[in-house]
Amino acid sequence: xxxxxAFCNQKGGTGKTTTAVNVASYLVALGKRVLVxxxxxxxxxxxxxxxxxxxxHLYHGLVRDAHPDELIRHSGLMxxxxxxxxxxxxxxxxxxxxxxxxEYRLRDLLRRVGRRYDFILIDPPPTLDLLTINALTAxxxxxxxxxxxxxxxxxxxxxxxxxNLVNQNLKMKVRTMxxxxxxxxxxxxxxxxxxxxxxxxFPGYVFDAVIPRNVSLAEAPxxxxxxxxxxxxxxxxxxxxxxxxxxxxxxxx
Length: 253
Ligand SMILES: Nc1ncnc2c1ncn2[C@@H]1O[C@H](COP(=O)(O)OP(=O)(O)OP(=O)(O)O)[C@@H](O)[C@H]1O
Ligand SMILES: [Mg+2]
What we know:
- The chain has a single domain, classed as P-loop containing nucleotide triphosphate hydrolases (Rossmann fold, 3-Layer(aba) Sandwich).
- Helix 1 crosses helix 12 and helix 6 crosses helix 7 (about 130-140).
- The protein has a 7-stranded mixed beta sheet, sandwiched between helices.
- By secondary structure, it is an alpha/beta fold.
- The longest helix is centred in the middle third of the chain and has 18 residues, at about 150-170.
- About 50% of the residues are buried.
- It has helices at about 15-30, 45-50, 60-65, 70, 90-95, 105-110, 130-140, 150-170, 190-200, 215-220, 225-230, 235-250; strands at about 5, 35-40, 75, 80-85, 120-125, 140-145, 175-180.
- Magnesium ion binds next to helix 1.
């Protein structure tokens, strides 16, 4: 069965989507079979990989019981597939409420295809709504992308608390694989201080790989390309390659 990883942070713009998409590209480069699940109504992971959602997308899987095989698209990059997101997912947050098993719809959907993948990477929205709860209950592990800014520590502590609450209340065992420092500027004294504090406060829970602020990472999605396709020699590409290697190593252990 696939290892399912959700990239979570209730704060917006911390690099969740950029990380999901680019880690996916380096996992497939390492020979893994990967499915990216875009459960964000913004659908940035879908367009960032260069996939058109079309008429059928994750909304139909979550709310209309469509089989994932009808919805999954090939990305054009090796063994990388996408379960596309769509703005209609915003309606799913409401339509799911009266449904049976509303917190576990994604988990049940992904179980139908889990055998075909080594990794399933979920990109949730920056909210704590039913979509994100579905991402958490479907996940074995959570990776938390954090920006090196003044409130990073508080945000990280709050999210770890939320994950504990989800585990207790929904009887889940989601584990935190680690926090990932994103958009890091090594010339910034604040960034260096925050990075140091995060490592000190959460020892063993911060990836060695640090993602630098890198213009190629910001440009790639507008071409519908991952960084591996757009600028494989950039600092951003090297950082995501290192992160993918770390994830594979942790997964083996
Ligand atoms: N390392 C980086 N260097 C430069 N720009 C980056 C980097 N990582 C992300 N960005 C840019 O920052 C913005 C936010 O990143 P991204 O969309 O990955 O965050 P997010 O957490 O998924 O946001 P949301 O919470 O809205 O889903 C995007 O415009 C993205 O291209
Ligand atoms: Mg996003």
